[in-house]
Design goal:
The structure holds 2 protein chains of 2 kinds. By secondary structure, chain A is α/β, with parallel strands linked by helices. In chain A, 38% of the residues lie in helices and 21% in strands. Chain A is globular, with a radius of gyration of 25 Å. By secondary structure, chain B is of the alpha+beta class. The longest helix of chain B is centred in the middle third of the chain and has 39 residues. Classes of the chains: A alpha/beta, B alpha+beta.
Chain lengths: 307, 268
Amino acid sequence: MGKTGHRRRTIRTIRTGAVVVALAGAALAGCSSEPSSLLAEGKIEIGSKGDQPGTSYSPHDGEFNGFDITVAREVLDRVGVKVKSSDFEGVLSKNRARALHDGDVQLVAATYSITEQRMKPTSEGGDGLDFVGPYASTRQGVLVRTEEAKRYKNHSDLNGRLICVWEGTTSAAELKKPAYSLIRTVDMTDAQECVKALKEKRVDALSTDQLILYGFMKDDPSITVAHALTFGPFNDYGIAMAKGHREDCKKLQQALMDYAQSNDWDRDFQINLPLVPKKDRDEARPTDDEIERSSCLDRPSNAKVDG
Amino acid sequence: MSSGGPGADRGSEAANVTSSGVGSSSFGSVGDNATFKWELKRTLTHVAWLPVSACLVIAATVVFAVFAVAQWPGGPQNQYVWFYVLAALGLLAAGTAALYPVGRTGQIRDAAQQVAETQRRTTIRAVLVGAAALCSGGGALAWVDVDRTGEIGVEMTIRGTQPVDDTGGTLTVMMTPPPDGYVRDKLRLTLTIKDDDPNTPTCVGRTTATITSVTPGITPHSTEVPAQSTVDFDLGGREGAVHFDVAVRPETGCSMRLAQARGTLHND
């Protein structure tokens, strides 16, 4: 009886210990500060635009193409995630951050510019996004009717002209600066409305990121990018994700660096945006240093300074 | 007070009169033969010297802390760690000594044990008071050391037209002279250049600046830096105001702002 009782007590103690260890392990796993990996399940939802031929375009439901889409596919493929067309879904510019925070999509690849405000954590009043990028860079450009393209050789040729911009774009903000006070602007709701107004001669030109304009130009030969006319700062495009997945972000950053240095980047850029001149294509291509100083950070990082 | 104090023992008129009692010790005589003597029944440690000393240490620490706050030299907080720790330990030890009970008679069975317990407690209190005094003194010395040789924050003023657009622009950064006595060898200057509008594409990674010392005798005379940078300048024994020119060079289309200039004087 004594020996049996002692053995039972020992077994009970071992069982209790095992349960405590198991519960503690589970609790520690649950308390981990880094949420589960976005890449672990091998499936991911990506937000993209549907109205920008060449960059983010959806010709019909369930199909997406353009340079943003290709970059997302290539980078994810390099970390072992195969992406299908059905993994992409349309997001509006103004809803991109919310779609990420609400978990509707896990990544956004939609000509999403890297800005200080977007990189800043929400606790500091920012949008709380991590970017993997830039995967392409471009300045603001001007799109005009093809038959009038030869008129536009320098910025002064825009003086007195009516340029269409749409809300929230860099162009809209840039053209309001005193340096462009002689240029008239009209705000419309989106790119398509501006393109329509240009073709119907209600405006003289439209302005937004030059890479996007080259996409419109390929889609419709009646409109042309005024190559010489660029303004504003470089817009650096990044793949965005909600903060809290730094490990995934770093993996994607490395994958992007590998991709951007390979011939694949050049090939994909030319396939999606064939009308971009080589000089602009070279400017659009990111260096490792540029990717390092903009990716997976809470604030933009410094330029390299010699000495 | 008279010759007939507590316990007075009077014999003949010419006989000695002895008086004793609790209180401060004193000796005196009345007439030729009458003397009285107060004998101290308690040793000095029995009197309130220890709590009084503890309170004095607390008072001295608090007074020095008020002085330190009023004369605070600034600079990074980590250099004040010893001051904070020692002052806190001093106050803690002195407070414990002041409040430490003399004895717990209820638990002591006989007089001998009580005496031993009281002695033990007195020793602990004395050690606490000593430790408190040492800690508070050490804390004060630590603060004085920072005040004389530590890092001091100095006010830097930015002047010039902002934001700086892509044509570039030069701003002036001036160091307000620190109060007399705050002489240090070097100035650590930290500049933060940011996008004028955080909602526009960031140009931080595409902006550089050149810092040039306008005040003579400062090295390096000129240095090129990125948007967020820290540079150490050797002041060459200079005590007065120091001026720098900061030439900001944003890339095409960028508009930047020198948002912050922080200065720290130090000897390292």
